[in-house]
Specification:
By secondary structure, this protein is an alpha/beta fold. The protein has 13 helices and 31 strands. It folds into 4 domains: 20-119, Immunoglobulins (Immunoglobulin-like, Sandwich); 134-255 and 312-541, TIM Barrel (Alpha-Beta Barrel); 258-311, Oligo-1,6-glucosidase, domain 2 (Alpha-Beta Complex); 548-617, Sandwich (Immunoglobulin-like). It starts with 19 loop residues before the first strand and ends with a strand.
């Protein structure tokens, strides 16, 4: 039997799989054929921080078939490291480097390195969300209580038709892109808590709720005040408490890399009675922003003049956000259970360190989530490697790599690539971060998942084109079939599924603003809602999804089979995205399993219909 010299995902070669706590000992084994006539084998490790490379001679160990083991032990401090192996032999010097599926191959060249993440030993994350479900709400578009609000600025356009398409034109008139409001509010969300409970929701993630002068509210005007159209601070606290009674916690969006220019801090439109940074160089907020030529020469987020960038390392600003009496702790004291940090990879390390201290000062069970679109353990931004998940910053991140892997697979990709993405995450991320990964497949920043799955276009048309697109009945039917496959994967792979409001109701639409339409109350796809309720109920009732092991069974092209296991509990998930039926061999223990979705097994064989799935539970 031919064997690989190394496999970082196999306990035969590594005593511990995945990221490592500092101070823990890791035993590594290299397996080389006797015919190689090896003289000596070496473990090579490189510090990402310093670039220093060290070698350690491996000791000769036992044998397996016609192979010999070479072993070593390492203990590391917190940081990011890269490793390979090399050996000398009768035939010369060779390297063992990383290849596809994280397998080692013999090479005369240096090749690719394996990654080893080492996190702070005391790194702890909250337990309450493990095994749960997140529901993301764009507050203006979920549900309106219809109650009259006080203090709503009169320059906003209030839509009278809840079901109307969001405005996509920048007309300069009152009804304009970003200035059309539908009136969703805190009281409306509170009234719909029974519905969210039926979906199995344990956490509501709210897009920005602070006063701001656009419907998305990412241009904050006042961090210490809820937006008047959403309701008062008392309304917000009422929602928090009502949700808490149903076992649902609330986290909110923190947008700290920029504010709005029309804010009490910048005040370029003189809406506020404060002396804003744009009003005077003597403004107490002047140092919060990055001016060149005052007052018009200031840095703005992605070149958008209405979003002046903040200087997060300015002591006055960082204290205002993360100080003892700052924004972070003020709202945590009001009952929110955590924060999602917008563009976390654009915030400096010192600021993130300070935010974590503020979040955890109120409770170690508060959740700190970051928006990072790539692998958060090796991300480089602004010229430096980031340390988001090593214990002093974020608890976890939005899982964009998994989202893209699920969508790519469901739309025709190879299931092996999906499994590799999952295993890469398990290999690189600390387990305490894995359990809290936000596993979304659609958000306010992306086209609706149903539209992405139902169409073959590249979503590149302009807003005018997007505004007139409608799914045909055939496209809609296809999209719903594929959405169920994607949802089953999303709800059962490691991490926490995040359902973007209305996806469960069959909402469609391209990018902003079409992915942000109002929830279609009374016009939902009831069959799809029922499916999500059943899926959510199964997830919440099964112990395996709270930090349960992930065990791949089969993955090749259109089929994928895996098991989630914890103690005596196990769930098997099988998905077939082929256009034809398929059949897979699965462990015989599941012949006696309860069928949650799909077909039961017969004699260790599971049949799946075209574009179908099965979920079995022990």
């Amino acid at each position: 039997m031919e064997r690989y010299p190394f496999d970082s995902r196999n306990p035969l070669y590594r005593s511990r799989l995945g990221a490592l706590a500092e101070g823990d000992t890791l035993r590594l084994k290299l397996l080389l054929h006797n015919d190689a006539h090896v003289h000596a084998a070496f473990f090579i490790i490189k510090s990402d921080r310093t670039g220093i490379i060290k070698e350690q001679r491996m000791t000769e160990g036992g044998s397996l078939d016609n192979y010999r083991f070479y072993e070593c032990e390492i203990t590391l401090t917190e940081g990011l490291f890269w490793y390979q192996f090399r050996y000398t032999s009768d035939y010369g010097d060779f390297n063992v480097v990383k290849s596809e599926h994280s397998l080692g191959i013999v090479s005369a060249e240096k090749g690719e390195w394996w990654q080893l993440t080492v996190f702070q030993r005391d790194f702890k994350t909250p337990d309450w969300l493990d095994g749960g479900i997140i529901y993301q709400i764009f507050p203006d578009r979920f549900y309106s209580s219809g109650e009259k609000k006080d203090g709503v600025p009169d320059d906003r356009y209030l839509c009278e038709d809840w079901y109307a398409q969001p405005e996509y034109r920048q007309t300069g008139d009152k009804k304009s892109l970003g200035n059309d409001y539908y009136g969703g509010d805190f009281k409306g969300i509170e009234q719909k808590l029974p519905y969210l409970e039926e979906l199995g929701v344990s956490c509501i993630y709210l897009n920005p709720v602070f006063e701001a002068h656009s419907n998305h509210r990412y241009n904050t005007a006042d961090y210490m005040k809820t937006d008047p159209l959403l309701g008062s601070e008392e309304d917000f606290v009422s929602l928090i408490k009502a949700a808490e009674k149903r076992g649902i916690s609330i986290i909110i969006d923190g947008v700290f890399s920029h504010t709005g220019d029309d804010s009490r801090y910048f005040n370029s439109k003189n809406r506020y009675d404060t002396v804003g940074a744009a009003n005077s160089q003597d403004s107490p907020y002047r140092g919060w922003y990055k001016f060149g030529n005052y007052p018009s020469g200031y840095s703005c987020w992605w070149g958008v003049p209405s979003l002046p960038e903040t200087d997060e390392e300015n002591l006055s600003f960082s204290n205002f956000i993360a100080g003892e009496n700052g924004v972070i702790r003020y709202w945590l004291k009001k009952g929110v259970k955590g924060w999602r940090l917008d563009v976390a990879d654009e915030l400096p390390d010192t600021f993130l360190d300070k935010i974590r201290l503020a979040v955890k000062a109120e409770s170690s069970e508060n959740y700190l989530l970051g928006e990072v679109w790539e692998d958060a353990t090796n991300k480089i931004s602004y010229g430096s490697r980031r340390r988001f998940l090593r214990g002093r910053q974020l608890d976890s991140v939005m899982n964009y790599p998994l989202a893209e892997a699920i969508i790519t697979y469901v739309k025709g990709g190879n299931s092996r690539a999906l499994v590799d993405t999952v295993l890469d995450i398990l290999e690189n991320y600390p387990p305490q971060s894995v359990k809290l990964l936000m596993n979304h497949i659609g958000t306010h920043d992306t086209a609706r998942i149903l539209t992405r799955l139902a169409t073959d276009d590249a979503l590149t048309g302009d807003r005018e084109w997007q505004s007139v697109q409608k799914l045909s009945d055939k496209q809609l039917e296809k999209g719903i079939r594929l959405l169920k496959l994607a949802a089953v994967l999303q709800y059962t792979l490691p991490g926490v599924p995040s359902l973007y409001y209305g996806d469960e109701a069959g909402m469609t639409g391209y990018g902003d603003p079409f992915c942000r339409a109002a929830y279609p109350w009374g016009k939902e796809n009831s069959e799809l809602v029922g499916f999500y309720k059943k899926l959510g109920r199964f997830r919440r009732e099964s112990a395996v999804f709270a930090s349960g092991d992930f065990v791949p069974v089969y993955a090749n092209y259109g089929d994928i089979v895996y098991i989630r296991r914890k103690g005596k509990n196990a769930a098997l998930v099988a998905v077939n995205r082929w256009h034809e039926p398929s059949e897979q061999e699965i462990p015989r223990e599941f012949d006696k399993a309860k069928v949650i979705f799909g077909n039961k097994t017969e004699n260790g064989r599971l049949k799946l219909n075209r574009e179908d799935f099965a979920v079995l539970a022990l």
